[in-house]
Design brief:
The complex is a heterodimer. By secondary structure, chain A is an alpha/beta fold. In chain A, about 60% of the residues lie in helices and about 10% in strands. Chain A folds into four domains: about 140 residues, Up-down Bundle (ABC transporter transmembrane region fold), CATH 1.20.1560.10; about 160 residues, ABC transporter type 1, transmembrane domain (ABC transporter transmembrane region fold); about 150 residues, P-loop containing nucleotide triphosphate hydrolases (Rossmann fold, 3-Layer(aba) Sandwich); about 230 residues, no CATH class. Chain B has a single domain, classed as Jelly Rolls. Classes of the chains: A alpha/beta, B alpha+beta. Chains A and B meet through helix 23 and helix 24 of A and helix 1, helix 2, strand 1 and helix 3 of B.
Amino acid sequence: MEKSLFRFIWQYSARQQMVILLITVLSYPVSYILLELPKLIVNDAIQGELFPREVLGFEFDQISYLVLLCFAFLGLVILSNGIKLVLNVYKGRLGERMLRRLRFELFQRVLRFRLPHFKKVSSGEIIPMITSEVEDVGGFIGEAVALPAYQGGMLAVQIGFIFMQDPLLGLAAISSYPMQAYIIPKLQKKVVLLSRQRVRNVRVIADKIGESITGVSEIHANDASAWHSADLSDRLYTNYKIRFKIFNWKYFIKFLNNFMNQLTPFLFYLIGGWLVIEGNLSIGALLAVIAAYKDLAGPWKELLAYYQMVADVDVKYQTVVENFDPPDIYPVARLVTDEPEPLSGALALKNVSVSGGAAGQEAFDVTVTVEPDQHLAVIGPDGSGRSEVLQLAAGLLGPTSGRVEIGGRNLETLSESVLGRQIAYVGPAVHVWTGTVRDNIFYGLRHRPLRPPERTGESKVDYARRLSEAQLTSNPQYDIEAEWEDLDALACADVDDLVEHALALIELTGLAADVFRMGLQATIDPESQPEFADAILAARRALADRVANDDRFSAMIELWQIDRFNNSASVAENLLFAAPADSSIGIDTLASDPDIEAALKESGLYARLLEIGQKIAETMVELFANISDDSGLLGDYSFITQDELPEFERILRAAKVGSGKGGLTPTDEQRLIGLAFKLIPARHRLGVLDDDMRGEIVAARATFHKRMDQAERRFVVFDRDRFVAPMTIEDNLLFGRPRVDRRDAREKIDKVIRALVEEMELRRPIIRAGLGFHVGVAGSRLSAGQRRRVALVRALMKNAPVTILDETATGNSDDDKALRKVIREQLDGRMLLFGASNLIVAEEFDHSIVMNQGRMTESASGDDNAE
Amino acid sequence: MTLDAEVDALRRVPLFRGIDATKLRLLAFISDRTHFAPGEELCRQGEEGDSAFIILEGEADIRVSTPDGEKTVARLGQHSIVGEIAILCDVPRTATVVAATEMDVLTVSKDDFLRLLKEFPDMSLEVMRTLAQRLERTTQDLAAQKASGAAA
């Protein structure tokens, strides 16, 4: 990578820099004329004589001459500002493009780092380098060449002018330059050093903050927040100190510059004046030189500012770039080559050694051969070199000596398009990506964009633009919107086929029960999966039959019925008999929804609900007013949180005042109605809802539904014959609520649902729906066991000739044993390296090696034993 | 039946007799109300107990397992409390309680009850007073029994 900013700029933008310079130079005569024209207008057109004038063969009298000059002035104003606009946009665009190129290059370099390098760098440091630290570079690039060239040129012209007037005065004019040229870089160097320190310190701060977030549970568990606070506060102080020093130097340099610049006029007046008095210089010449000197100050100041900016930006560039140039970085070709040659033949480690930089991360002189259809157990405790050997075999780690080969080909020289597709690897620490279960399972098949989407019209044009921009900045031209799944790896005809394959593996690896549970809680779009929705409706009908015929079961559940109040559901649900299509609309926001409010008023329930809300608020305030907030009672049982209590006390006081001034505001009313909405009569038993009111609520459903028809599908009405999209699959199946006043109703109903789902062959489709489950940030919504199984399915999906598993399913539990059996059956006839710390695992394998302190101490083979 | 009716029922329970109405309302509000069909078990002998049951409506059989199998030893009606010892100390259930008819039961969980006691020390005093009275009565009964035993 280019070590110097200027070489980077020149290499990738020389032509554009020349364009900028050319436009800048061209703009000079325009702005010069623009400055001269007003003088001409005043002196020549307004105060001038000798009319009419002849311009370009046309005759002009005074007024029309004035009009001509003024329009010429207007034209030049437009031209000059137009040039500025074009120039600024051009510079800005160039800067952004160069920045994109730089950032991508840096990111690609991160991908090219060897694994051991990541033990030395942290994401907390890398992230600010790529994002914020290079930001200033982009702003500078547009000015990099044009500014010094233009201002330098101006300076040279002015100096030349002064020298032509008088060489002595010329010398005087530039007398301070050598001093400035000598002192300022020296001072600037101090600033540069400080800037470097500052950048490093900020990086450490970013890293510390990142680490605090990752380890926040440790901080709280150990009461270490004081320590971390002190640590960060100290870093912030260091930052302040450095910045303060930078300010001191920076402004001192500024002071010195200004001082020296104004020292020169002092010399002019002294020397020039003396020369004039002596008669060696005319007064006119002195005045001209002084005027020229004033013009000199502008460019000189610009150049000095530029110099300071260069120093600043260059140091930023260098402090970033030096971190991305480790000597052993992989060549780019390893990443970008797309030659998926099949790997076949035996895997051979020949006298391989590797050292990870620390004890326990090494392997010495390991020699082992694994046949293409062999299953080999690699046994050894953590720190024995087991993981290193497996990473060597996967091509993730390069050996410091020796060779790792598959079918005679050195892994070190193969590209990732071979290694990453022909070898499946699950390491001791698996990473699950933020996204859906499906994304994670298909992850191992997404190597290149394979099937681009159909683009027409606008999006086609936009895509073409995207491509050309990528080309201009050496970014890759992969299409993120394409389908990336490699169907050929599994010989699948289409993506559906692939999903079927994934479902089979999910079933085999014991992930099915979990994904099934995720599926029950998932929502689907009935329009895109009409058959599935119909099947769920059939199941719903079967369940309803069961409710009708089985008294014990029917006592557990209250089904949604359009003409009956559901005591186990909230008043809001009862009233709407519908769910908001947008799942982000909660029960709290419903009361303030204009459509709901209008429907309430229309059905005449508004006042009644307000009254109910008021009664609830009164009861809550009465019950919980004397409860301390640490008892937990308030949060668990009340409609109102501790913080809201005073607010509701105020609302109740206002309610007593009645309507009008000091009474309830519309917001207060919404809050009270919101309370009434949350009431679940069977649970809360406040006695505020009598049978008449229930009847009225049921009757009001018609009003609400009529209004919802107009409300642009914002609500989906509960209809027993239709799939309700905003409801989860489970709620759609049940189409009702477990009764809150029956013990364990939920569990008992769950059991029945499960049996029914099995019976109606809905299990598979529900698991399929579970693939859409969002696993949270880095899989945080999955358990550790689930994450590992997801990673295992991901590896098996690759259908690779070589599979390497480290610390996966290595326990003695029946589950793990069964999973091992599944893995071995799946990979029968293919190569498997199975890493485990558990010695018992070795007994299940025909071949095994044992690692101890980085050395291979034992190699056993079932065949050898038999001989 | 609403909260007020439940408070009424709670008030008839000796353990809660001295506690003022608002606190009983709170207790009722945070307790679960559950319906049981005949034959359904409220709790089982030997299990860990974590709640007391106040019968709002219906009747329940108390059954104890004996060497000859399970025997019904008592039948409890409206406003009785069962398993109240469980909400004060950790003991296994001493009997099985089975719904004899359709029942409405207020289930007071141990955690909630203890939280209330912590919140209102007055309530603890009342509970202590009731327990002390009960102890006193038991002692007197015992003394009377001994005396009558000696007389015989």
